[in-house]
Design brief:
The chain is an alpha/beta fold. It has 17 helices and 31 strands.
Length: 645
Amino acid sequence: MPEKTLLREPGTFTLGCNYWASHAGTAMWTDWRPDVVEADLKQLADAGLQVLRVFPLWPVFQPLAELKTGGGEHGEYRFGESPLPDTEAGFAGVSEEAMEKFKQFADLAEKYRLKLIASLITGWMSGRLFVPPALADKHVLTDPLAIFWQVRFVRYFVRLMRGHPAIVAWGLGNECNCMDRVKNREAAWLWTYAVSQAIRGEDMRRPIISDMHGIKPAVKHRQVVWTIQDQAELTDILTVHPYPRFTPYCDLEPINTMRTLLHATVESRLSADIGKKPCFAEELGTLGPFYAGEKVAAQYIRSELFSLWAHDCRGMLWWCAFDQLDLEQAPYDWTAVERELGLIRHDRTLKPVLEEIGRFGGFIRQLPIEKLPPRTIEAACILTHGQDSWGVAYSSFILAKQAGFDLMFCQADENLPEKDLYLLPSLTGAQSFSRRFWLKLLERVKAGATLYVSLDDCILSAFKEVFGLEIQTRERRSDALTIRMTALAGAPVFNTTAAFRLNLAPLNAEILGTEPDGNPAFTCTEYGKGRVYLLTASLEMNLCNVPGVFHADKAQPFWDIYRYIAAPALKQRVLMKDSGQVGITEHPLNAQQRIAVLINYSPAVVKVPIKLAAGWRIGEILRGAKPDGTLLLPPNDAAVWMLAK
């Protein structure tokens, strides 16, 4: 892939992995064996990988020791007992021996046409902190001395390697937000600024990758230290490391089922939409055989790859290249989860997951298009102040996917995108958004848009005029909430929870669902040319912590609510389906052609009734079989079709 398009060009997709040498793991630079490294790189290239993310371990590349004098006063910085050389490397505190090894490594990567992302400040790796001896007692993200030496290291490293053709991007450093506990957002911003500016000062051509793990949107009324917005301001490409075990609401179900399979996609889209920068899954994996057998891992990555590609998530780097079962040093000695994560076993045999990645790469290369056009997006999911934005975003995206439409994320009190459908899920508190934002949103509804609101423990103003209901009283619930959805086909009964009950008197609202005593629970009212739907339960947050709600055989079809409110928007779709386990994205090529990607987010064969809009037909089959009114999708697989008018 051309360097200028790697991870930056919409519709493209990059495949790779995170790399430590097969024989040494984090000790590869002190136990440098170029013959083993070359064998590693050849094997990875032959398997179809394009990019490796690599790690100049900080204390090896900047092995500073501080010698002190009487009373513990500073005396001198040295490399062990050797004085720093009177060279550029010595000025930066950088080991020329380590840099020579990295140059050899980059030469080998270029030999096998592998591109490199260099994660510069690798002071945190797999649960262990790696810091130069001189900085071991410092808060390395806020201490001026630590930042001083990091900036010198980064400037020297980038200056020395910027001319190498294998290098395609610079990472700030591996999960640097895990290296130390930073107390405030401003300090996190300053560290990011210092390192990113050090890179830009030496190389304006290559992009800077955030490299961070688990960052969140900045919100009002709550301190978030490492934010999507700040990383987007200071870097060019955002990252997610979507491991279910370490992400709230994700480690609830089998790894090859819908909630878990959409984790990487939702986290990537949340970062990209909020940050307005490209985002990719920089680390992805199953965390080894304790979570998934090898066949299941292959199924998992197949669904993940098609999902990330279809939602313009730019790339996937597996963690990591090789199993590390026989390594004695920490962190491998400490942590069982770090030992069996590779694409390749210790005996150099390939795991099925690597073969699946290779097959996906082959599929991408043979497509008749260079780039997948943007998907159609019918709705904007507005994340509001005071709520758990990740939990709300996660559930909302899954429900929309089950219902058959796509959404993007935005935040309250920021620019409001032009959409036909707006979701305000799980509103919480009395300061969910400003009055001016609420009025702007209502103007969109007056002009013809649809608005959906679900309530947590919140206060809204004005309420009666918008929802066509008057609140009589409010009380805390002592039992579950049961709603008969009279407007939905078959009048299903949904069981959920709500912290509070609003006793409502209808004014001009249409009652679509009621509690057993007739109290309105799901309503609709006309507002100008548009409509406003109200659900008196915090559906999206309620679903976050309940296992099985998105895939189990007896799971309640909550997504029917989303399908109902999105009915006008869904009429603009060419392809419609009736399965909560299959997601569809549509990618218009022009007015007469679209590409459809249909993904089975379940480990079972799914039989899906398919309906085409009038005047449309299925043209070329790019993947899968041509349906005869019904599509049969294999487990965790995808179909890709050309649609023609």
